[in-house]
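Table S7 (text form). Paired inputs.
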Amino acid sequence: MQRWCRSSARALYIDVRPEGLENVPSSGAFVYAANHQSLTDILVLGSVLPHDYKWAAKRSLMKIPFLGWHLRLAGHVPVDRNAGSRAAAEVIGRFERVLREGKPLLVFPEGTRSEDGVLKPFKNGGFYAAVRAGVPVVPVALDGTHDLMHKGALDTGEIRQPRIVRVKVGAPIAPPSSGKEAQRVAELRTRTHASVAELLASIGGRVGAAEGSEGEELQDSRASNQPRSAEHDAASA
């Protein structure tokens, strides 16, 4: 997959410039948490991030010939953003199984592509999986893909010269080891959002409002194996 992503990026004249790859754990399971600006994020991240990680991908992508077949056969996780709480809880379970099998997982915790390239609040699904599996989250920021193919665009536009996209990886963030599950998820999500925001700003990206509203919702939720907030948010993980 990495070879395909690299060759595809070169064909589209995308010049990917990574930083911080030394922060990626050398082995074991963890969650990559990246901001999401464009469909080309898949090519960009796939060309530089190490390890045989699994993607959290929209189920509709699984129906695309060749690409969808690869996603299914390679064990990537289909996600239905609006399929209800039962399906959302099942997605968290799939995330957790990937991690417990020792595989890294990549999620876009904003839940969908940013319409303006500005970093949005994070959903909870991937963070529930990280807390339950006891694995760290590796923050990833990328900038430049929104200008290549913004949400709703049909292609990357006319190619005249190499287009620079920057990727920066931060230090792993360990999940809290004590406290109610919902509170641990909220803390991990907030810390990850802050780290991605800092990384994004350092490479010239735009950052929106700080985390807050979803953390307040989590404070009022009951800790259980399938808390309401987790079910609600996992479908957009």
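Next pair, protein 2 of 2.
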Amino acid sequence: MLTEREVLSTLNMLRNEHLDVRTVTLGISLFDCVSHDFDVFSYKVRAKIAKYAAHLVETCNEVGARYGIPVVNKRISISPMAVVGAGFNRDQMVRACQMLDEAAKDAGVDFLGGFGALVEKGMTPGDIALIEALPEALATTDRICSSINVASSKAGINMDAVALMGRQILKVADATSDRDGIGCAKLVVFANIPQDVPFMAGAYLGIGEPDVVINVGVSGPGVVKKAIDRAKETHSQLTLSDVAEVIKSTAYKVTRVGELIGKEVADRMNLPFGVADLSLAPTPAVGDSVGEIFQSVGLSSIGAPGSTAVLAMLNDAVKKGGVFASSHVGGLSGAFIPVSEDSSIEAAANCGALTMEKLEAMTSVCSVGLDMIAIPGDTPASTISGLIADEMAIGMINTKTTAVRVIPVPGKGVGDTAVFGGLLGKAKIIPIHTGDASAFISLGGRIPAPIHSLKN
């Protein structure tokens, strides 16, 4: 039970500190919809999504209004399309993506994730068909997100898939060139992707998940920043140990709120509750920034020396506080550093305080990786593949999730601005190392898994 003081503190978070439930995501398995006949498959998928998602938005709004806690996004995740549509060709994969987009619009959700593939050890014809379909599929839809897992600590790195994704990212950008390559904002390349992520663009419903489930993603970077600022005002000698305790206690409150909402939505829809993903997910709004937390801890900005240490502390303290608050923690659960989606991080990148190399270093301790970074549109595919390979190596060796969501903006170069709108925000294009990786990428094959993958 919350004390009166904790209730008042939580109310203040809602009113003044951007506390919300970032997403309630309805996971729907499509394995029982599989058919060699595309029309039959399409009918079954649309019927199942309509059956379970018809009241999702309405229920989230009702629960949010009851508790005075807004649910910002309502989303759907599905089984990986390359698996359930394994027999489809490229054109059928495009049609499947368009069908899913229509189903998402009918349900009124913001995004639908799961148009993706798991190719860390090799690629099937269905995987290749889906990846080849990405440029047209993401250009002709509005609400579909795709995640491609190309590496894991158990399997190593599939460099053939890495090379293919470098080429496809450029094609997706070109297919959406009239919108600053926004298709790439809905496409992310993963290592060690969790099966229960409620956040986009990585959300999908894993093979071991329930038939239908409610997962919730909490947020609250603004709440954490304000909590640290208050502690500094009341304690003349605040140490980093004290800061970590403040973050832990704040993450506890935020997670309790998120799980409360998620379980209430699940109960009303007569569905099981899955996990709370307690990631600190920022928005472009001032005061709702992960980057501002770094300034509250004493750095001039995110990117300054000490940033990786601060992020490590932040990520760890969020997990410790959130795990105690929730029955089931899952997803990514940590701190995001998406450049375009965070006003403070974007400002640091704009002025050169935060470089691609520093961002890569920080991914070793954050919850995801290189996220929502605009790069020059003429970046070679092999350079993008090399960037992906580096990030996958960090995830593989450290047994953690890492990901790459970069946007090569067609027709624009370093210093130009790409505008994506909404939660995706905007970003100046930052330089990327121009060294040649083409010969390395062309070798293909697999980078073997590390020795600790043999644990059993």
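The domain at 218-444 is CATH 3.20.70.20 (Anaerobic Ribonucleotide-triphosphate Reductase Large Chain).
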